[in-house]
Amino acid sequence: MRKTRNSNIELLRIISMLFITLHHFSLWAQGGRSDYLIAHNNLWSAFWSLFYLPLGDIGVYVFVMITGFYLGTRDISINRSIKKTLKVYAEVYFYSILFLVLAINWQSPVKPNKLWQSLMPVTFNQYWFVSGYVILMLLIPFINRSIQNLTKKQFGYLLVIMSTICGIFPLVDNNIASESVGLGILLTAYLFGAFVSKFIHRNWWNFLIGFVLFTINTVVIYIIMYYQIQLTRDRFTNIYTGIFALLAAFGLFLIFINLKPGFHVLFNQVARHMFSVYLITQNVFVLKVLWRNFYFRELNNLVQVNINGLGVVLLIMLACYLIDIVRSLIFKLVSLIKISTEK
Fold first, then answer.
1. Cβ contact 303:116 at 8 Å
2. Angle between helices 302-342 and 7-24 in degrees, nearest 10
3. Cβ partners under 8 Å of residue 49, min gap 6
4. Other CB atoms within 10 Å distance of the CB of residue 321
5. Per-residue CA distances from 153 to 39, 157, 160, 164 (Å)
6. Where would I find the Acyltransferase domain in this sequence (predicted)?
7. What is the pLDDT of residues 93-126, one digit of tens each?
8. What is the pTM of this model?
């Protein structure tokens, strides 16, 4: 049990959310630009307009690996799992209802599908990642019991199986075990995190392995992404998901795990609120309204567009962090009121 969380890992949590949000910048803010460029056969420019797209799934997998690292080797009871799940769900529900109320006041009428997604965000899959993550949290007591006695060799064999059926199969449209952004790949990422926690010790060699894995797989993703855009004339490629993103994420995770452990209160404090960045920016009432403001129509220099996008994303993350501090204070106040009424 880690009483004080390693700030290297908490910094990585922040970076993972940065990757996810940059992905959404390319997908939602620059998607229209890339479609226009593809339609006019400017495929190299279209590639650059989607520059951050491959980072999203790397960020998702890293985020779940961190959960596996902290929880994967612990004996988590069913009651504790439920409490952790409810804690996550309470945060999800807070933002779902908050933006539903704001939408009712700003929009008329609210579409039925968005209404149900807000009232039951996991059941109606308002956020695919949240739905998968909540289910994963509920399964953790059983997953941990299943892997606690595995040897390193047995665990490695399990990772090979899971990486194949959840990381390679979806790339060839075989979704028998998982879609490329489904529960199966989240479970696989969780197991990678648990494997690191259980068997990987900090040394220079593991740092080097991580660097090589991250570099090679990220380069492969970008190369194949470019040629897929060339061949398919479509920005909706799937090469940045699955096994390549999983191995790139694992490499990045190894890099940070093998840095000298330290404690920085700022990193740990900010990391606690990073989940809110996803919940706010991907809310059904926020997503399109937010990202349409950052098309940067007046800019033709795509390097400058991406630099501006990075700046915008950092500001969005800061704003979400500040909003979530308020949410956290509200939760604490409600908890104190509940305690006082029970006495």
1. no
2. 120
3. 26, 30, 33, 34, 37, 302, 305
4. 19
5. 50, 6, 11, 17
6. 7-323
7. 999 999 999 999 886 688 888 889 999 998 888 8
8. 0.94
